[in-house]
């Protein structure tokens, strides 16, 4: 990680770094990495994490920012070399330990860690009966051994939030993402003018 950051500082804007599109959590992580280390990469946006990682595997870019869940199969198969976690904790894949970048670069703590949530939504206009049936189905699925084993094996955490609780989580994420983009200089519209409260 240190040699990569040093190279990006020595030759700014020359090391191509892939992430899913502008404004995505992975782009925010790249911006945070740059701001926290004074390195400057050449950001190459892709339409999703899969094409970004494919670009790294094929040598189109030298660095890809993505979640461990997305990168795990490529790391496990020896196609990607993990350099560091941007989550504030180290991680393990088999006998490999991926160090925590925030320990190596404490200045990153000003911007990181950032997290995301993945959810399923139904139209507000759906009847309460429909919402209740779907909620019950997801509750049963999340409690199953199959889903829990899949989540553990793919480095996901299942929160099981629904309704108002889930809405509050996503409102908080909107606030964090909008203000992080603004604070990192990647946004041109002040979130306050959009009525998005500071986190």
TrEMBL record:
This is Tripartite tricarboxylate transporter substrate-binding protein. The lineage of its organism: Bacteria, Pseudomonadati, Pseudomonadota, Alphaproteobacteria, Hyphomicrobiales. InterPro entries: BUG (IPR005064). It comes from the Bacteria. Pfam families: TctC. Belongs to the UPF0065 (bug) family. Coiled coil: none annotated.
């Amino acid at each position: 990680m240190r040699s990569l950051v040093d190279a990006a500082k020595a030759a700014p804007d020359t090391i191509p770094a892939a992430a899913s599109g502008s404004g995505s959590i992975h782009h925010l992580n790249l911006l945070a990495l740059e701001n926290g280390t004074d390195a400057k990469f050449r950001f190459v946006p892709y339409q999703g994490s899969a094409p970004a990682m494919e670009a790294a595997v094929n040598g189109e870019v030298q660095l890809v920012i993505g979640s461990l869940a997305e990168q795990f199969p490529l790391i496990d198969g020896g196609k990607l070399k993990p350099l560091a976690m941007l989550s504030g904790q180290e991680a393990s894949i088999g006998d490999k330990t991926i160090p925590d970048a925030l320990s190596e670069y404490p200045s990153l703590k000003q911007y990181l860690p950032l997290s995301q949530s993945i959810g399923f939504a139904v139209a507000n206009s759906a009847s309460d009966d429909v919402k209740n049936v779907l909620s019950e189905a997801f509750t049963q699925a999340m409690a199953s051994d199959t889903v829990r084993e899949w989540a553990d094996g793919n480095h996901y955490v299942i929160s099981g939030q629904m309704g108002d609780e889930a809405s509050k989580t996503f409102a908080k994420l909107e606030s964090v993402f909008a203000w992080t983009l603004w604070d990192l200089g990647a946004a041109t519209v002040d979130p306050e003018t959009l009525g998005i409260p500071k986190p």
